Structures are given as C-alpha cells and as structure tokens.
Protein: YbbR-like domain-containing protein YbbR
Amino acid sequence: MDQWLRNTNVVKVIALIIGIMLWAVVHMEDSALPGSGGTGVREEQITNVSVTPKYDSSQFFVETIEPSQVVLTITGKDSALKKAMSISNYSVELDLTKVGKGEHIMPLTPVGFPANVTVKVSPSSAKVIIDEKSNKQMPVTVNVTGIPAVGLKAGQPIVKPNRVTVTMPSGSIDAVESVRADVNVEKAQAPVSSKVRLAAYDKDGKVLEMAAINPAVVEVEVPITSPFTTVPLQLKLVGEPPKGFSVASLVQNTDKVTVYGPQDVLNRLEYYEGPSINLADLKEEKEYALSLDIPPRPKVTQVDPAKVEVKISIVASATKTLEQVPLSIVGQNDGFDTKVVLPESGKINLSVEGAPALLEKVKVQDVQAILDVSNLPPGRHELPVTLNLPTFIKKGAGQEFKATVEISGKQDAAAKASSVAKQQ
Structure:
C-alpha cells in the first residue's frame, strides 16, 4: 500500500477518480426531471391562495373579488424552489390604490417570493367591485333572553356606550335597521354584567355580515330586581283649611313612583297612596314646604323615591255664588219614574269658597249636586243633596241643601197622564 502511494502515477489516477466523482455529484443536483429537456429546472404549484386587496379602507369597501382564490405555479432550480416553497409570508396582491368606486378588472401580482424563481398566477387578473363607505350613527338595543330566578325580574339594561357607528357600502347603508346586543339572564339572582359583541340587523332581522361596527364590543349591565311597576303617586288630603283660608296651589316634586313587590300585588295597583296631609293644620296665609316619607304598604318591598317634596300655598278665601245648579238623580230603578218636586225648578243656588284665582274659573257645569234614590220605594222622599266640587273649592258656610223627589211606577204615571187628558 505504501509503495502504491509513493508511486506518482497511482496518486494521479486516484486524484482523477475523485475529481470525476465530485463532478458527478455536483451535476446530479442540476439533472433535469423527466421531460424537462435537461435544463435543470422544475415547477411546483400552490392552490387556494387568497387574493389580498390593497386599497384605502377608510374610504372604500370591497364588495366582491372574483376569483377570491388563485393557483400559483412556481418555476426554478431545485434549491431555489425548495427555498421558495418554505416561505410563509407570501401573498397575491390586487392593487386598487389607483381606482375608485365601480367595477374593475385588475392584474394580480405575487409578492414575497425570491428573485431566482418565476411565479405565475392563474388566473392572472380578477374582477372587483368597489363601493364608497358610508357611516350611520345607531343606538344600541339590548335583547334580554332567559328568565331570572324565581321572584326576580330583569330591569332596564344599561349600555356603555349606548350609540355606535355602523360602516357599510353606500348602496347598502339604508338597510341597517338596528344594532343589537344579546344578554342571557337565565336564573340570575344578581345584576348581569358582560362585554357583548354587537351585530347589525336589517328590517327582517337578518344579520348584515358586511357591517363594520365601532366599537364592536360594548359593556352591558342588566339589573336583576324584584318585579316592579310605575304608577301615579296620590297624596291623601284630609280636611279643609280653617274658615277664611283656602288652598291656592299644591305642587309635588314627583307624581309617579316605582313600586317593587310580588307580581300579583303589582297587578292590582292603579295608583300608590302617598302620605296624608291634614289641610286643617294649615292655619296661616303662607307657602308650606313639606318633606314627607312615602309610607310602605303590605307586601310592597320598596318604593322609589322614598320621599316626596310638597309645596302648598294658603291664601285668604273669596266667595262666589253659582246660580241655578241642576240637581242630578242617581240610582234610579228602570221600572219607576223619578222626578224632583221640591224645589220645583230642580235647581239650587250655591255659594262656594276658595282661592280667588281658582274661584274665578269655577262655572256651574263644574259642580255636581246629586240626589241618591238607590233602593227607595215609590212615594215622596226628602233627601240630602251631595255636592261634588272642584279640587280646593269648598261649600260656603251655613248651607245645607235638601230636596224632595217623587217616585212612581211607570204604569201609574201613564194612567195619571191619561186621566188628566180626559178631564181636559
């Protein structure tokens, strides 16, 4: 072996063999694929590559791109091809920066590939429809679903912010009917708070997928409380101011209250009786400012507000006579005729007392003078006159009215009328 290596001819032969082998290895990389003609170049395909539009998104809206996906054919030497295929941040770009609203056919450009490969896009162009953007301010509505725990009720949702901006193609902006957030309160025992993604809907309740909403997420809180209802607050006025004084005005700072309690109790509420005010205690000509607690009622758990502020103005009284106030009969039996026989006119003259400003407006038709004949038998009956007067107007002192009515059967009345006719 050592003798061979000392032989220069042998060394030359070995060097030649090694050189030939190295040449073969290097050129094997460049050997052509079958059918390539021996050029050392091959190709690969990438399918379903999405088209990326390049445009001013603050001004325009891309409605459609056809096709939205393309095929890339990449050609190059094996080493360059392998490198190109390993790239992940490539794209196919549709440059729309120099066109505006309308329909366009634009070339597609591969971006992000090395220079030593050739990239072919198929198809090489795309049809695009561009529209201008339009904005619309919309309130946020909350759709509360589910039923809270037994005995509780979902209150009015609180939304922050409660108005948002909807962006759509100008041709579709009028289709936006509402912007809604859905919140589920199923079996909730406490207020439900959450961040909710918004959706825009058309008049048929379908989601408008193209709508961009800013902000896209809002904070919603749905109070969970006892059942409640809002009803008028009615003060209980007792008595009248002393003689010579009258109420000129009574103003309360709230005329409604929210009442919380069992639903069956709330269903029966037409109004809520507030605190009592004894007008007989107001003995001076002045304005009274009262802060009164609104009293609780059986089974009512809460009343909001809990207080009512009342201002009452007391002034010196004036008097006025209302002449010819007609007497009205109530409680008549359909089988009888009833008429007033005393006074013969069926009317009275009534003196009333009140604050001058209120008294000036009172007319005869504002007063009811009532005779109640309920359950009375035929015959003559003397009855007290019940007076219904406008608020803060009272009957003048020293007046007691009575009237006589006659009740008769309708047949008797007809016979009597016939007898009178015969005598004539």
